[in-house]
User: What shape does this take?
Amino acid sequence: MNRMISKSASALSRKTLSSSFAKTSVRSITTLQETLAAQVPEKQAKLAQLKKEHGSHVIGNVTIDQCIGGARSVKCMLWETSNLDAEEGIRFRGLTIPECQAVLPTYSGKTGDGEPLLESLFWLLLTGEVPTKEQADSLTAELHARSTLPAHVVPLLNSLPKQMHPMTQLSIGLMAAQTESKFSKAYADGVPKKEYHLHALEDILSVVAQLPEIAATIYRNVYFDGTVDKDLSLDYSGNFCRMLGYDDPSFDELMRLYLCIHTDHEGGNASAHATHLVGSTLSDPYLSYSGGLNALAGPLHGLANQEVLKWIQELKSKFDAEGKEVNAESITEFAWETLKAGKVIPGYGHAVLRKTDPRYTCQREFALKHIPDDPLFKLVDTIYQVMPGILKEHGKVANPYPNVDSHSGVLLWHYGFTQYQYYTVLFGVSRAVGALSQLYWDRALGLPLERPKSVTPEWLWSQVQK
Ligand SMILES: CC(=O)SCCNC(=O)CCNC(=O)[C@H](O)C(C)(C)COP(=O)(O)OP(=O)(O)OC[C@H]1O[C@@H](n2cnc3c(N)ncnc32)[C@H](O)[C@@H]1OP(=O)(O)O
Ligand SMILES: O=C([O-])CC(=O)C(=O)O
Assistant: This one.
């Protein structure tokens, strides 16, 4: 990996970035800002060349099915940070999840020993380069330095009704922090377009830095006494766990895995796409990612992780009440009841994937390593044994296999994190890292306002009657 940067790029980043960390740190490593500044000119030139020389090259056709059916497989969005293969699953900057686990810096500092640091994946997504442990640690320090919330945010969160869904609260909390946006101020001050990405990066780092305290405040307010205790001697995930009220090294590791695997899933998923769309209007990263959070809060997307736990609890209480054992047979019975009622089996199916989600598989491996005898894990495993067969028999579902949401709640539950209405908030903290890494490149590459063409039903009919 190329960790070298040009002198002029380094000088540019030193001159333009206002980050307190970038100004004060001991300059023995190449910082995130310097790494990015070195990459931008070449990437801009490459994209301009692609447009100039091959702009009219056709990369696909669109059918009426795709036009009506949510644009499945329509290739119409540029995405730097990750790519999804229907069979293999996600690659973050070309690396599969096991490859990330093998090469990214961990908390212990010994690569491969434990789960990757979220900061190391953030660095990878932004730059396409595997950071050193020192670089990952420098990002930890930078995020901690930016984590202080504007004074009005916590009082606002404290004033929200406890019964308001935690995702609604998260979106409100992030929107409220937007008062500090450097991007919107720079735009209002009239900075030139070629500098947008520098100000976007300021906001992106601050949004990622501030989300854990917003999220933890919501958790502690809704379910406990509202107290949030930080530990800035830890990494991003460890500190987040302390703020949530958990102090268990095994839970810290789970959170590192959780936060890494939920970051990015190429561009077309609803939360990433919403962030990209809102950002294309030059709304700042706070507003853009609030849009992403609102998309994540839907039950066909991120909210499915709470729905999975709800489904399992309903299944258990039904069979406990009937004095029946929860086993493959009773799970099958309950699954058919769900399907016959016209409802979806949460945690199964996917718009792109056609095999078991590797994010499901790595969580299963975590469970086998850390909590093999957990009864709920065993139940989820039994569901995994029977559900693909049921969904194949049902006949409608394009992908009968589990997705990421099918496994995440069970792991949290094991550690006493049973408030499943909150689960999507954890997803929301993680997804910021992927969606906003891409937003940096959207602005660095000068991508335009997103505005596809819609058509009327009459126009579609006119096409087939020609
Ligand atoms: C992080 C994430 O967002 S991962 C996804 C999380 N969401 C869930 O787990 C919710 C359950 N799953 C689903 O609803 C779907 O599989 C989705 C939304 C994820 C993908 O939707 P699509 O791409 O439209 O799926 P697909 O092409 O297989 O849909 C065909 C039919 O099967 C149905 N179907 C798909 N998955 C399921 C499921 N898990 N249970 C029951 N029916 C399903 C669809 O509702 C659709 O029915 P319709 O023709 O009556 O409208
Ligand atoms: O890719 C999708 O459409 C949904 C998904 O799994 C994600 O966003 O993580």
Summary: Residues 304-414 form a domain with the Cytochrome p450-Terp; domain 2 fold (CATH 1.10.230.10). The pocket of acetyl coenzyme *A (ligand 1) is lined by residues 300-302, 304, 339, 344-351, 396-399, 403-405 (CB under 6 Å). Residues 1-26 have pLDDT under 50 and may be disordered. The longest strand covers residues 82-85.
